Fold:
Amino acid sequence: MAAKAKAFSLVELLVVLGIIAALMAILLPLLEKGREKANEAKCMSNLRTIGQSIALYANENHGHYPRTTYTPGATPTAGTNPAAADPFGPGGPAANDVSAALFLLVRTQKLPMETFTCPYNDVTTWEPDPATAPGSRSNFTNFRKNLAYSYANPYPDTAVAEGGYDLSSHMTAAFPIAADINPGTGGTENSTNHEERGQNVLYADGHVSWEHGPLVGINGDNIYTARNGAVAASPADVSDAVLLPAKK
Structure:
C-alpha cells in the first residue's frame, strides 16, 4: 500500500507566503529603481542625440543653432502653426517660437519624432513622423504632448543680442543648451519628467549630465528662468540660460 502524501500545514503555508511577501517587498523597489535608471538613461540618450543634431545644424548654418522667425522683444511662444510648409515664411510659426526652432531638426536632420519624448513622462507621447517629407511640417502638433525637452531661448531681447548673446557653436562649453521639460513654475523646482527628482541637462560641449536641481547654469543660476525669475522671458545676458518651452 502506497504511503499517503503528507500535506502542508496551514502554518507552513503561511510561512511560505510570508517569505514570498518579504522577497517581493525587497525586489519591487529594486525593480522600480532599475526602471527609473533605464528611463533616465533613455532621456539622456535622447538629449545627446538632440545635441549632435544641433551641432550638425550649426555646421551647415555658419555656427548658428536652430531658430525660426525672430522679432526682438517679442514674448517667446511655442506650438504655433504646425501645418505650415515654410517655417520662415508668411503663415509659418509665430515669431520667437521655441518649439518650432527645435522642429527644424526634424526637417533638416531627419531626427525621428520619438527622440523628443521621455519614456518616464506619462503625459508626453510621441506623434508619428510626418506622413510625407519632413519639409511638410513646421512644428509639433501639440508641444505639451509631443515634446518632453526644453531648449535655450534663441530669441534674446535687442539689448541682450547687442551685448553678445548668440545661441551658436561659440557658446561657452558649460552653457546649458537643452534639458528635460521646464516645469513652468519658476522657483527651484525640477522638471516633471522624472517625478521632480532631477533632470538631464545638455551642455554646449555636447555632454549630458543628470542634475539633482535646476541651479546648474553658468554662475549657478536657474536654467528654467531668466535671472529675474521670469519663465517665458529673454535671457538677461550672454551667460543666462532660459530653457523653453515650459510645461505650464
